[in-house]
Design goal:
Chain lengths: 163, 567
Amino acid sequence: MRHIISLLMENEAGALSRVAGLFSARGYNIESLTVAPTEDETMSRMTIVTRGSDEVIEQITKQLNKLIDTVKVVDLSDGEHIERELMLVKVRAEGEWREEMKRMSDIFRGRIIDVTDKTYTIEMTGAGHKLDAFLEALDKSALLETVRTGASGIGRGERILKS
Amino acid sequence: MELTGAEITVRCLAEEGVEYVFGYPGGAVLNIYDEIYKQDKFKHVLVRHEQAAVHAADGYSRATGRTGVALVTSGPGATNAVTGIATAYMDSIPMVVISGQVPTPAIGMDAFQEVDTVGITRPCVKHNFLVKDIRELASTIKKAFYIASTGRPGPVLVDIPKDVTQFTTEYEYPKSISLRSYNPVTKGHTGQIKRAVQMLLNAKRPMIYAGGGVILSDAAKQLTELARLLGFPCTNTLMGLGGFPASDPLSVGMLGMHGTYEANMAVHHSDVLVAIGARFDDRVIGNPEHFYQEERQIIHIDIDPSSISKRVKVDVPIVGNVPEVLTEMIKLIKASKEKPDQAALKTWLTQIELWRSRDCLKYDRNSDIIKPQFVLEKLHEITGGDAFVTSDVGQHQMWAAQFYKFDKPRRWINSGGLGTMGFGLPAAMGVQLAHPEAMVACVTGEGSIQMNIQELATCKQFNIPIKIILLNNRYLGMVRQWQEFFYGERYAESYMDTLPDFVKLAEAYGHAGRRIDNPAEVEDALKWAFSAEMKDTLVFLDFRTDQTENVYPMIPGGKGLSEMILV
Ligand SMILES: Cc1cc2nc3c(=O)[nH]c(=O)nc-3n(C[C@H](O)[C@H](O)[C@H](O)COP(=O)(O)OP(=O)(O)OC[C@H]3O[C@@H](n4cnc5c(N)ncnc54)[C@H](O)[C@@H]3O)c2cc1C
Ligand SMILES: Cc1ncc(C[n+]2csc(CCOP(=O)(O)OP(=O)(O)O)c2C)c(N)n1
Ligand SMILES: [Mg+2]
């Protein structure tokens, strides 16, 4: 099962490598990992997307909790949550592509943020599967480059992750 | 008052009440050594290899419960220390290792003797720090001791760049410390403890499985009280030996790969198994699929939540500190009107005695070659079971565990998790320094002892009169045994030709030694080693033992507890 895990860590040098090292040392799967400081600059927040059986996910959260720099861990998949990812896509925008790409971007609520004679760069946010769907829908020969941030997640409503 | 980083380091160690620092100097730590020279709060023990510094600090810690301290230089000093750190990590030993680092501006420049020590040690420490700002030095050392010794203990490394040891700052040692990201649980969940007690009171075939956590948390007293109160049998892991007295009739000895028949059978057939500070290691339970028993319920007490349900699913998890949880349980049991079903318990104990009568540790007592088991039985007899026994890794380690019946905790000191050959001699140094008046025996093999033999010089310099019990079978015996059983007797590289004359070697280092070829001489040699006359002398006994003796019982890899190979 796919899980999205959120953690708050002390904003210490090496915190990221402790997490990355933990996943590789114990052979856990890691689909994406995002990290940035929070409004409290002494802490950073990570979102990790991983896959595993219930037992493996239980070990992952326990092992993450065990890291001395970890302030808090939640498995967002345990409850209602929102997940967003940012993607930048560079596509061909010459001749007949130019209209088509604009239309596709609009349908998927993307924004064109850079324009040249030959290319568009489209910005798109959404849950991972929405971004996947956009890439699926595009003609492969028009696709020049993609870059994705990996998912960020947050609990719905009153579900708050704080130290 | 402003102090230099080196002065601060030394002051902090003194504040922590450190008695011994085991170390080896080098460029990056020269400022610290200069301050060590000027102080008299703690003693420094100059080892002959950094691995030994860490093992000695480790042995000191295991024998006392206090945090061991090692000090090494940057680069090769730090990499030499890694095996020692990993050894301590696997067995959850509280330790602080201070390593020198190149000056901060040189970090990342491939400077002379630079390695990424924090990066290299990250997977084998509880935590580590690189101190880049001298203002954080004192608080970091404080944190290091706090983290190392609380919760599930473990080694913590503090890497200090040379310039940080030179800079000065206002010094104040923090009195207490609290970390928002680190709050180990100690008290167990009351509801879970109640459930566990009820389960114990209802048990018909109960079994206590006690591990290293009992030793680490000094809970032998509570464990013994619990077992005796309920009249339940108890087995100990290799790391838990001495946590329950081996001479108690309720003791069935060690379980696991080389555990006793009665211990393994009893665990296999129990209906309620209570694991206390033990982690269901693969050497203990074998294959988890073979271990699984539909009708058996498991209670697991451990301070580290990640130890629970890692390899084996349990029914009642209790996260907490062993002595606190056991005290709570004992209180509830005493207050309860219920008692375990005495008839069922009697039948169960009778069954266990039947398994015990299989006499799984028997060996040929009439052999005219020295049997290693015999040496260990005699060692137990002559030391009155009161010695601290360290060991290396191999067959001799298993025989020591099986035949030296430990009645007290912290007496049995060995590397279980990492299985580090070369551990025994330096660990014994730490033990003897911690307990100058005690008898300290290092049980070793001719393979293992050569991995840190240079420490005989340290023993001479610091007057460390340990007794080395070499069970010399001229083989990497444990490897040989596996090759005999599982590799068609193809003894690939397990025979060591050209061994040194160990007696001469010991003498060359300034110690005494004796070679023993004959069973009739065993007792006399041991008596000599532990005599008043030799009290202040390191004695090296080279016992020429049976080359082909094997350790029994044995559970082959991938098998379960009831599938032992027996003699
Ligand atoms: C050649 C060889 C053969 C071996 N054969 C065997 C064998 O036959 N049988 C055997 O048992 N072992 C054997 N071992 C050792 C084995 O590899 C493991 O090291 C050992 O079994 C682990 O012991 P343990 O489960 O007691 O855990 P330890 O490694 O001692 O871990 C202690 C546990 O207690 C917990 N703990 C720590 N402090 C506390 C506290 N305050 N409160 C609560 N919990 C706490 C920890 O979180 C951890 O889970 C062998 C090793 C070697 C090298
Ligand atoms: C550093 C290290 N290298 C290799 C091993 C693998 N190993 C385990 S037991 C053993 C043989 C030990 O031989 P010896 O010290 O003579 O003890 P014996 O088994 O003969 O009693 C070896 C090589 C190990 N445990 N540690
Ligand atoms: Mg040998």
